[in-house]
Specification:
With about 260 residues, this protein is α/β, with parallel strands linked by helices. It is built from seven helices and twelve strands. It is about 30% helix and about 20% strand. Bound molecules: iron/sulfur cluster.
Length: about 260
């Protein structure tokens, strides 16, 4: 099983080489209702070693990493759960000379060591799908003890020290569409470099299969499609967020950009 996949095209960052520091299962501190991995098999919020850094570097050598614009650490769950994340970031930068992006749900951002490890990456994109604790629990279904308030506070602190490029990814569904003004308040606290407006474009698999971590192109597995917000709704959300924050906002509906 390779811990490296792609490069796959990403609407946010171009050709992206995926690094999966988890790989053995779907493992996350969330269990999002729209997760492209399906129902998360192992739900934890403690850090462990899943894939040794040497294995990732060996898999890298077998990949087409030279064709990638960026190297994205994400994969089969929440990458900050991998206790060797900082080591992986530095090893990838040293070997490839390419920028490294980490996608995270922010549930461990309150830990100083996680903030330090993420600080080595050129880009960090943090998921934020809810503006209230109730919606947070409904959409992200976090493990016990994780709150939206702690994630937002950690994000504000992280951004005050982080020298790289911070993106906030927002997945809009029918559930959180009514919270746009409250989202804007959070964004005004965090002040990220970029806000990414997304909606579920990938189906929800019945079971985890390794290939769901990638683009889903040509993958044949039982899955059900998810309700998206429409182009018009996305346009309205984007306009309102821009009005209230003045931030750069990119949309999965590309012609909005
Ligand atoms: S945070 Fe990401 S990997 Fe975890 S459940 Fe949500 S979408 Fe899936």
């Amino acid at each position: 099983m390779s811990s490296v996949y792609g490069p796959v095209p990403s609407w946010r960052v171009g050709q992206s080489l995926g690094i999966d520091p988890i790989c053995i299962n779907s493992i996350c501190s969330f269990n999002c209702t729209y997760c492209q991995l399906g129902f998360i098999q192992v739900r934890i919020n403690e850090r462990r070693l899943f894939v040794p850094t040497e294995k990732i570097l060996a898999d890298l050598e077998q990949s087409r990493w030279q064709q990638a614009d960026i190297i994205t650490i994400s994969g089969s769950g929440e990458p900050t759960l991998a206790s060797n994340l900082g080591e992986i970031v530095k090893a990838l930068q040293k070997r490839t000379g390419k920028p490294v992006l980490v996608l995270t749900n922010g549930t461990l951002l309150h830990l100083p060591e996680v903030q330090a490890e993420l600080s080595s990456a050129e880009k960090v994109f943090v998921k934020l799908d809810a503006a209230s604790e109730d919606t947070f629990r409904r959409i992200n279904r976090p493990v016990e003890g994780v709150t939206l308030a702690r994630i937002v506070q950690s994000l504000v602190e992280f951004h005050s020290r982080y020298p790289g490029y911070l993106g906030v990814q927002m997945m809009f569904t029918r559930v959180n569409l009514e919270e746009v003004d409250e989202f804007a308040e959070i964004l005004n606290r965090v002040r990220p470099d970029e806000v990414q407006l997304n909606t579920p474009t990938r189906p929800y698999p019945q079971d985890w299969v390794l290939q769901t971590r990638g683009s889903h192109e040509g993958v044949d597995y039982p899955a059900r499609p998810l309700k998206r917000i429409t182009r018009e709704e996305a346009r309205a959300v984007r306009a309102r967020l821009r009005e209230l924050t003045g931030l750069k906002i990119i949309s999965v509906y590309k012609e909005e950009n």
